[in-house]
Design goal:
heterodimer, A: about 190 residues, B: about 280 residues, Dihydrodipicolinate Reductase, domain 2, 2 domains, four-stranded mixed sheet
């Protein structure tokens, strides 16, 4: 998130090679399309997986952004859309990663099970800044509701983004900025 | 003092304005704390996160859109003067109507579900609100409104400490709660602490403490010193802005107290994100 010109730019969907080249702590700008989903949508997807049923969306090679946006004002493509706390999706994330999801975007720490699934599937977990919703929304150019419309803000959307700012929080080797970054500044 | 008549529509309009304003316009206390933190923060990434938060809050204010997509559950602390009579409607309905209009007309997110366990169906208008009303003497209504986001609310805790735990026990429970929250509640955080009363009183005090400006201090010098000491200790934990590492984990610690029972020393810690939305008005 340093000077925008120095930041790594990546096009979505990410390839395995893209992910292998990422390291925890690195700031990146993402362009392309990503899925959105949070608590209620994850619960439904997980129940389908548990019952051996097909998912209503193709998650292979995709990123899921954990977000429940505010409504868009007239003239705006989307409303404010910052990340929600990721740990609430920890119960569901490994099953999605094992089905080919490339990674997740959210905020905050993840469980060991999620970290293991990131390493196992050569995935990635990006963080963006919690509470910077008005700023982040500037990089979201279009939204389309894919399923679970009845969930309102929790419906699954496809976002088209340009230079969406985030930080590699956990890379495919399991390096974790929430551990290493904090250790560096802890005086306890 | 004579009876004063206030129209229900005036109450509703005031509540609506408070919730829209607190979601669009960050408090001056938070803005100056963020600006100071950009200077003092040791992590370069942390400095950058803080600058982006300042930029975000500027965008929200100038475009009149919410600072954060989680525009919160509506919490109100109301001091209701006993000489006030509401005309053309009921007080509670007027407050709920104000919340409903704010979240609808202000393009705020509707984040409330009807039943907490079984149905979890969105009520569609962000009602009901959580309303704490105190009857006071006088002919005015004072309303303190806060939109409480749940990323930080989920990190809060209450402990029924016993008196033998003393000052050290209070401090370690507060610090343990903040440490356990770690990067999740959108640091830099505001920590609201309620000490004393009963189980629910402590929690209510802690919530009210999060709605106090962070450039204010507890009136009792001993608690004011504890606020400073805790803030310093929290900023040594290393979580930093957005929890990515740094020296700015909290912007403020506010403590509120109340007399308690001989057998107890309840402590509640209510964590709030850096948006710390609150506005107040007197009718």
């Amino acid at each position: 998130m340093n000077n925008i010109n120095n930041m790594k730019r990546l096009t979505l969907p990410l390839s395995e090679q893209d992910v292998l080249n990422l390291s925890a702590g690195e700031s990146v700008l993402l362009s392309g399309t990503m899925l959105t989903g949070r608590d209620a949508a994850h619960k439904r997807l997980y129940e389908l997986i548990e019952n051996g049923k097909e998912l209503p969306i193709d998650i292979r090679n995709e990123l899921i952004y954990y977000v429940g946006p505010a409504p868009a004002k007239p003239g705006y493509a989307v409303g404010p859309a910052g990340p929600t706390s990721s740990y609430r999706m920890d119960k569901y994330a490994p099953a999605l990663m094992d089905l080919g999801l490339r990674g997740m975007i959210g905020k905050g720490a993840r469980s060991q099970e999620v970290i293991d699934s990131i390493i196992r599937n050569k995935g990635v977990y990006f963080a963006c800044i919690g509470g910077a919703a008005a700023l982040i929304a500037k990089s979201i150019k279009k939204e389309e509701i894919l399923c679970y419309d009845d969930l309102g803000t929790e419906a699954v959307r496809r976002y088209t983004v340009e230079d969406f700012p985030c930080i590699v929080a956990i890379d495919c080797k399991g390096n974790n900025v929430y551990v290493d970054g904090v250790k560096q500044y802890s005086e306890e | 003092m004579e009876i004063r008549r206030i129209k229900a529509s005036v109450v509703a309009e005031t509540v609506k304005r408070l919730f829209i304003d607190c979601n669009y316009f960050i408090g001056d206390d938070i803005t100056s704390a963020l600006k100071n933190a950009v200077e003092t923060e040791r992590s370069p990434l942390g400095k950058n996160v803080l600058s982006q938060l300042i930029e975000n809050n500027k965008i929200a204010a100038s475009e009149q859109i919410p600072i954060c997509q989680d525009t919160g559950m509506a919490v109100l602390f109301i001091e209701y003067g006993d000489k006030v009579v509401i005309e053309d409607g009921s007080f509670e309905q007027a407050v709920e109507q104000g919340v409903r209009s704010a979240y609808d007309e202000g393009y705020l997110r509707k984040s409330v579900v009807s039943d907490p366990v079984f149905d979890r169906k969105n009520t569609g208008d962000n009602t009901p609100a959580v309303i704490h009303t105190k009857i006071v003497s006088g002919d005015k209504i004072k309303i303190l409104a806060g939109g409480k986001g749940f990323g930080s609310e989920n990190m809060s805790a209450v402990a029924m400490l016993t008196p033998s735990k003393g000052v050290e026990g209070v401090k370690s429970f507060i610090l343990d709660t903040v440490r356990k929250a770690g990067p999740n509640p959108c640091p830099p955080i505001v920590v609201g602490v309620g000490i004393g009363g009963t189980f629910e009183k402590a929690a209510q005090l802690a919530k009210k403490a999060t709605l106090r400006d962070i450039n204010t201090k507890n009136d009792d010098a001993r608690y004011a010193a504890m606020e400073d000491e805790l803030l310093e200790a929290i900023n040594k934990m290393g979580f930093g802005p957005a929890g990515l590492g740094g020296t700015t984990t909290a912007l403020g610690v506010n403590i509120e107290t109340y007399p308690t029972h001989i057998a107890g020393m309840p402590v509640a810690v209510n964590i709030c994100c850096h948006a710390a939305r609150h506005k107040s008005a007197v009718i």
